[in-house]
Amino acid sequence: MPRAKTRKEEPVEAGSDTVMEEAPTSHQPESRDDMSVDQDENDEAGEAEEDEIEEEEEVQRVRLLPGSTPTAASFEFLNEGHTLGNALRYIIMKNPDVEFCAYAIPHPSEAKMNVRIQTFEGTTAIEALEKGLRDVQDLCDVVSDKFIDAREKFVAGASS
Amino acid sequence: MDYDPMVMDDAEALGPVVKISQADSVRVKYELSNADIAFANSLRRVMLAEIPTIAIDLVEISENSSVLADEFIAHRMGLIPLNAEGVESLLYARECDCDGCCEHCSVKLLLHAKCEGDENMPVFARDLVPFGDRINQVVGTPVLSDALRQGSLILKLRPGQEIKLECIAKKGIAKEHAKWAPSAAIGFEYDPHNKLRHIDLWFETDAKTEWPPSDYAEWEEPPQEGEPFDYDAVPNRFYFNVETAGNLPPDTIVSEGIKVLQQKLAGLIHELAEDEGGDGMNGEYNGPRSPEYGTGADGFGGYTTPFGNGGNQSSWGGAGGTTPYGTTPYGAGQSQWS
Ligand SMILES: [Zn+2]
């Protein structure tokens, strides 16, 4: 055999390599880490791990950006992108009480997506956002049902 | 707000329509009409990148006398499609309580092959055998969709060569690594006659003769000779072609894609509803007594940079009622959003 196998000399399980179980669960930083970095610096080393777990549940994925008023607000979504942004923007613009809605991803290396909503009197930006989210959800329901129907029809048509 | 969000096109009050033109074990071709391009594209993106599947994530090689390097093989292992049916019952390893991995968040697979004949021996995905405790008997088994049921070729061994490795397959999404993609490809097409002029076709003398028409060209009315350009027109019919890599049936990819999108939305709606019950949009990241403001200047906790509005020292987000925001009715410690 041309290739020397150094591992062969060692006991089967005790290679000097990292044991598989100890390897990190993912190469990607967990999303909450982005947020907890600043916090961790102030923590005692021993507490850091525990705090991190607590923080995990409190990661806030939507926040209101400064300078917002009830009828004109900007929201920042964490870990969202064009997938949600464009569909949401479209459906919010369908709301006749909404004067303006747009979305942006300010920087490609930050997993953040901003949505700007300006409404007419009678509703607030946050209500429009919530309604938008529910409307996309309803739209998903309809398309999902239609797809299942179409699929059943197709199968029935193919077998008959 | 008496409008119907389902009505995508004012002319037709039908709502979205789905028509399937082909469906088998490998692909489903369907047309989504009366929908908006924004939604159609969201569906495409979510099917591509956010459906959870299972793929090999860790490989421990104990014997490799093949001509391929360990890391090369490890990479190939990751790309082998594994059956992802029932992956919902598996946890993400990072969310599991175990230390590293266990049967609730992973599937272990073993590959051990030695060429003992005189001819080169191909090693296929079917030689990969799951072992240890498993959540069910399907999830994590290699996909064998070819006629001979061999699965993908991993490597070839010359006489006397041996490969022995242990893999841990985990749940993940293609946003993290493409090996978790359920689809080999997703075709997405609209406006086959390019009436909307979203595409600028390159040509030598005539685009019409040099570009073959799309399969869907006959589904739509070709442009009339001398027809004026309709600058108000928007795409309305979208042709999807979802081809599976074998880990999920093609129609499951579509329904799972929609499901993922809905979960995303449900999570956000839940969070907004929760926020409204609390102290407003800035959440309770630092507890309700956080020095931050209802303007949400510092929803994520404790930035004290001069740019982050949350720091008390910053020029924008001071703690008193002296900032431009602090004196507004919206910024005084509690937001008016609830
Ligand atoms: Zn586990």
Automatic annotation (TrEMBL), chain A:
Protein name from the UniProt record: DNA-directed RNA polymerase RBP11-like dimerisation domain-containing protein
User: In the UniProt record, does the keyword Glycoprotein occur?
Assistant: no
User: Region (Disordered): which ranges?
Assistant: 1-66
**Per UniProt, which keywords does this protein have?**
DNA-directed RNA polymerase, Nucleus, Transcription
**Main subcellular localization, coarse class?**
nucleus
Q: Which InterPro entries match?
A: RBP11-like (IPR036603), RBP11-like_dimer (IPR009025), RNA_pol_Rpb11_13-16kDa_CS (IPR008193), RNAP_AC19 (IPR033898), Rpo11-like (IPR022905)
Where does this protein have compositionally biased stretches of type Acidic residues? 36-58
What GO biological process terms does the UniProt entry carry, in alphabetical order?
transcription by RNA polymerase III; transcription elongation by RNA polymerase I
- Protein's organism: Chaetomidium leptoderma
TrEMBL record, chain B:
* SUPFAM superfamilies on file: Insert subdomain of RNA polymerase alpha subunit (SSF56553), RBP11-like subunits of RNA polymerase (SSF55257)
Query: Where are the residues of the annotated region Disordered?
Result: 301-338
Q: Name one GO biological process term.
A: transcription by RNA polymerase II
Q: Where is the composition biased (Low complexity)?
A: 324-338
Alphabetical GO CC annotations of the entry are: RNA polymerase II, core complex
Q: Which GO terms describe its molecular function?
A: DNA-directed RNA polymerase activity; protein dimerization activity
Stretches assigned to the DNA-directed RNA polymerase RpoA/D/Rpb3-type domain: 27-271
Has UniProt tagged this entry with the keyword Transport? no
Q: Tell me, what's a Pfam family for it?
A: RNA_pol_A_bac
Query: Its principal location?
Result: nucleus
Location(s) in or outside the cell: Nucleus
Keyword annotations for this protein?
A: DNA-directed RNA polymerase, Nucleus, Transcription
Family, as annotated: Belongs to the archaeal Rpo3/eukaryotic RPB3 RNA polymerase subunit family.
Listed under subunit, the entry gives:
Component of the RNA polymerase II (Pol II) complex consisting of 12 subunits.
* Database matches in HAMAP family: RNApol_arch_Rpo3
Q: What is this protein's name?
A: DNA-directed RNA polymerase II subunit RPB3
Q: What is the lineage of its organism?
A: Eukaryota, Fungi, Dikarya, Ascomycota, Pezizomycotina
